[in-house]
Amino acid sequence: MAEEEEPVDMKEVYEEGCKPKCGKELRAYEACQKRIEDDTTGEAHCTGQYLDFWKCIDKCAAPKIFANTR
Known about the structure:
Layout: H1 10-18, H2 23-36, H3 47-67
């Protein structure tokens, strides 16, 4: 009896494929991280830039993900 292969989570595959399309958002997030790396107050954060990056990924990947749910 052959071992069954683990299923591939296509959501992760689609998200990875969308990352190059969201370069502007990723660069903004990385720039923010660099700006706040020396923050000693603990109040600085890059939540907005992080969410913008993932919003771009989601917008790109969602049609591909849901196209296979019919």
